[in-house]
Structures are given as C-alpha cells and as structure tokens.
Specification:
With 731 residues, this protein is α/β, with parallel strands linked by helices. Among the domains are: 94 residues, 2-Layer Sandwich (Herpes Virus-1); 77 residues, no CATH class; 182 residues, Alpha-Beta Complex (Hect, E3 ligase catalytic domain fold); 109 residues, Hect, E3 ligase catalytic fold (2-Layer Sandwich), CATH 3.30.2410. 37% of the residues lie in helices and 10% in strands. It contains 26 helices and 21 strands. Helix 23 runs antiparallel to helix 24 and helix 25 packs across helix 26. This is G2/M phase-specific E3 ubiquitin-protein ligase. One of its GO terms (molecular function) is ubiquitin-protein transferase activity. It holds the Pfam family zf-HC5HC2H.
Length: 731
Amino acid sequence: CVLCGRTDDCPEKYGEKRTYVEYNLTVHYYCLLMSSGIWQRGEEDEGVDGFLITDIRKEVNRAAKLTCNICKKKGASIGCVAPKCKRSYHFPCGIQKECIFQFMEDFRSYCWEHKPVQKFPDRESRGTSQCTICLDLVEQLPVYAVLKSPCCKNAWFHRECLQYQALSAGIFFFRCTVCNNKDKFQKEMLRMGIHIPEKDASWELEENAYQDLLQCYQHCDIKRCLCKKGRDYNEPDSKWEIKRCQCCGSRGTHLACSSMKSWEQNWECMECRSIFAKSGSYSKQKKRSLATSEKTDGTTCLLEEPSPKCPRQSPGSQRNFLLQSPKIMCQNNLPPCSHLELPASNRVTMSLSPLTSNRNWSLRKKHLREQRREVSNILKELKLQVNTKTTRLNINAENIWNSALKGFRQRNFSPTNTIEIKFTNCKDRSKADTSAASKHHFFQLLMLHLQNSSLFEGSSAKNLSLDFQAVKENLYFEAGKMIAVSLVHGGPSPGFFSKTLFNCLVYGPENVKPALEDVADVDVAQTIKMIKYANTLSSLQSTIHNCYEFLAAAGCLRPVTALCDKNMLVNDILIHHVIKRIISPLESFRQGLKTLGVLEKMQMHPDAFSSILCHKPERLSAETVCDLFTIHSSSDVNKVEGADFWMGYLQDVESGESVVTLEDILLFVTGSFSIPPSGFVPEPTVKFVHIRYPTGNRLLNCLELPITKTYEQFKNKMEFTIRNTLRAERQ
C-alpha cells in the first residue's frame, strides 16, 4: 500500500486492497478514506471511488514527510483531530495502538490518548456477560475491545464481533441484536469506530438466496394418505388438492384425507393443535367414540385420521389395527399396503380408544414424538460430517470410562471418523466385534456410566456437580464431547439432564432461574427450606444466624429487615449453589457439546433436543415396533398371512402373553434395547423366507422370519430363538 507500506490483504481490518496497474498504484481502502489531507473531488467512477489519482500522489508526497508516532517510519498520513495534538500514524499502526477512526462525516481520527470512550454509571455492577453475537464471555469493562449497547442495559459485545456483523449486515440491517434498535445503535457504533458500509446485507446479495421461500409446501402429512398417486400429488379444485396448515403453513393434507369438503375450510396440523391445547385457546370437543368421531362440519377427527365409509370390524379382532402401520413393500412392485388397507375406523376403535379419555395427554405425547422426529432429522443432517475413514476403539466393558477416555484422547481420534468398537474382554476373541450393535452397546454403557458418575448430581433429573479433580483433568469437556459423538454417531441420548442444566446450556446460565428441586445436597436443601418457610422475622433471622458460615462462604449474606427479604435470599442461594458454583464445569461441558455442531443445533432447536436430553426414550409399544420395521416379501410368499402373524405376535408380547419383551426383539435384531435419537442405519426390515427359525442380522438390521402354517408355530419358534440367543449372549 502506497500509504501504509504494508502488504497485508485483510479487508475486515484495512478495507479492500486495490491495485491499479495502469497507475502503478496499490492502496488499502481504509488508509485512503482516513488520510487527513485528501478529499473525494471526483465522481464515483473517477480514480479510486472518487479520489483522483493526482490527489492520491499529492497525499503520498505529503505523508512521506511525516513520521509515525507508533512505528517511527515515514508515511504517516493520518493525524489526530484533537486540538493541539500533533500525533500522526499509519492506519494499521493506529488499529494496533487502539486509536478510533470514525467512518462518517469528516472521517475523523483520534489517537490513543484523545479517543472517545463509552461512559458507564458508577452504580453499574462490573462482571462478565455473554457477547450476544459470538455468545462467548465478555468482561463488562470500558476498554477498547469491548463495546456496550446504548439501547440495552445488559447487551455487551466484542469490538471484533461487532465489526464483522456490521460488514455483513450493511447499513440497512446493522442493528442491536437484543432490541433491534437501529438509529441509536448505529450512531453510537460509528462514534466508537465501527465501520458500517453503505451496502445491502451479504445474505441479500447471494444469487437465488430466497428461492426456497418462493415454493409452497405441497405434501400430505396425514398418517394414512388416501391418494393413490402419492403424498406429493396435488390437483387444484379437486379432493386431491393439498391444503396447508392455516397457522404454520409447514404441514399439509389432501382435502379427502382429512374429510374436508371445500378448500375454504380451516385446517390445523397436530403440532399447532397441541400448542393451542396447551395454551387453552383450542376449542375442546365433546368426548365420544373415535369410531364415530367424524365431524358433521367436514373437518378432521380428533386424531387427524380419515373416516371412509367402510364396514365396521367385529369387536373380537384384537390385532388388526397393526395392519395399518407397517410399510409393506413387495418385490413384484405392488403398491404399498395394497392388500392390507383396512378402514381407519377399525383401527381407531380397538387400540387408540383409550387416548380419548385424556386428549391433552395424547396431544402432549404426539408433540413429544414430533419433536423426537425433528431431532432425528437434525442428527441425520449432522451425521453427514462423518466420513468413511475409521477409528477403532478398544473397549473394556468392565472399565468403560477409562477405556473410552483413552480412546477419545488418542492422537488419531477424530469425531468425524467412523467409529468401530472392539470389546477386548470378550470370551470369543475370534469374533469380529465391529458391528453397529457393538457401537450401540458401547454408547449405552457409556451413557449409563455418565449418569451415575461423580460429574453429575441429583436423582433422576441431574445437574452438573463440582468435582475439582474432574475440572483439573478436563473430564467435563470429555463428557460433553462423548454425548455429542453418541448423538451424531447413532448412540443413545443421556435422557437425564434436568431442565435447569439444559436451559443453562442453551440460553446461558445468566438467564436461568434454578428451583429447590435442583439442589442435590440434603443439608443445603434443608437450609434453603428453613429460610423459605420461615413464617416470622425472628425465626428467619435465627435461621440465618445458625447458617452464617454457609451464607458467608456462598457470598449470600444480606441484611434482613422484613420477612419478604427471604425470597431474594433463597434466590441468591439457589443461583450460587446450582449455577455459580459449577460455572467452570458448565463452560467446559458446553465446549465439549460443541463437537460436531451439536450445541449450536441445541440452541437453534431447544424444544426438540429437550425431548431427548431431558426425557428417557418412551417405552416400546407394539405399534412403535411395527412402524419401525419395513416388511419385505417375495412373490411366492403370502405376505398378508405372514404380516398378520408378525403383528399378532407383537400384540401378544406387549400384553405380556410371551416370555420375551419388545426390547428383547429389538435387541435380537439391532443390538440395541431402544431406538436411538438419530434412528437406525440401515432402517430395520422384516423378511419372510423359507427357513426353520428366525434370524437377526445386526449388520443389516434385518429380521428374517420363517413361514409357518399356524400362528402357534410362528410364536413358538420366535420365543425359542430369541430367548435362547439372548441368554447365550448374556452368558
């Protein structure tokens, strides 16, 4: 650069570096803008953005006589505008020395001694908070690297974060990230030296950036779509026209699939209905049998299922509802479920009728399933980072933590590599133990160990504990990393986070208010209860006197002059014990969860991730297992009879009429007791083949079932094989 003499090409710090071969001229844009002896005397298309070449030459000659007060070299083209100040410097030197350059009006520059500073009231507390752009901690101090929002009391930023945000957002979209104020915010940031370019936002300049928003949602999401041409078929002005949810617009239904007679009728998806139900704004219907729940006004029934006019099923049949749920595909290209479709009313009257007795619980359960389905899609997206390069971990199941820690800390371990597990303490060493089942088993053991480890405290819903040795060995980071890797690589979720711990991770500890249930220490909980339930001022003061040392150590001593002061005192103790006390482990744990982008997705989709991190997987049901498996059959197999035996057996297992459980069946096929949050890869399948006994292929998640003449034969073979196989594995 002819003005500063540096070769650096850093547009964010020095502006665009431009070279004009015809003039033998290279210059940083900011060096040119801030030079004290030059003005834009030309049009925008003349010279360098209005700076004439002759003027630039004159400015270079003028600066060549001035010495930089920072680097002591010639060419200092920028001077401090403070009266009587004679300091001159190069633009990069000024940045290094924390000078302020105002990119507005006369483009004034202030040296390090005369630069403007932000004023803070003396009564404002000093501490740390989160930068609302990068979410890292920032010291609340009046220093060059930190800026405070003029419009929000608790909004603090790193200067570097703000500058990047301004360059990306431009003058039209740069505003306070907390309150969205634009005018007051921009004025203060310009005063403090933030450059806000006069351009559109970077995301507005991307070609076809909003192309997706121009597309309407065209998909039928009803559980049983009636359209033979598929869920994506849309024929306007007919019963196969797709109607979108009037609230969210991100779910749809064919008019016929929801028994709607015209497009003008309103329709809400189940997610929106569940939200309405929770808020109490959804109009409740009278309870009645789901078999007759078809509404007279044409809108959909309670469970959003169609009610076609079909003969009713005899009440004696117990299992046929399951015939509706599996995805049956045949090798001879028959359409799915072509011979298994039964009236929706049949299924509803049998197994789902108990849900009508508690509609709100049904909606909550449905909402939880939807959230878990959303998490599954997110985790599948994150799994795209995993490559085919493998890393093998040698695991001792009897010492799961130390062997896992050693594996995760080995030099060649990378979260983006495919993980293979070798159990070193197996009796049969000749077996290649690198299947998906081994990985499931490893992550299950690891999550169980973490739940019961000293890193967490509490009964069922757990918070982080304070273990100084674990902090010293950075074990909280490793725990967060292991959980993130388990989620993305198809392992189970922890399921034991308390709501307080989850909120601290997602929203930041400063935005969370803990409850008494979060205190695991019995003595501390008893102390808090005595303060909380003190009914006179004297008893409150006596309690405080008795636990004086504890309150002093916690930094919670405060004058108590009225009984109502106890509420603030209880709140202080809870915040100290549950949050401030473990702030170091929490930050380390958060850093670990950032592995593979998991924490970022948690912060973007908190409700969805809460469903797997704060709740255990729901108990398996016959319907869940049936939906999980896709049924394949060859042309020489009676698929209806085979599927009937399979689904009838699931119903018997669920009702306790079998020596095995649904978890045993899942373990037999996949090696896992539960369905992982990201789902199984490959998806589980059922095949009916000519074999004597059922077999489970855990590499393919495939269950091969024998073809039998009677249901009793089928049931006996299933129970004999599954029971003895799992018994042998346990031994």
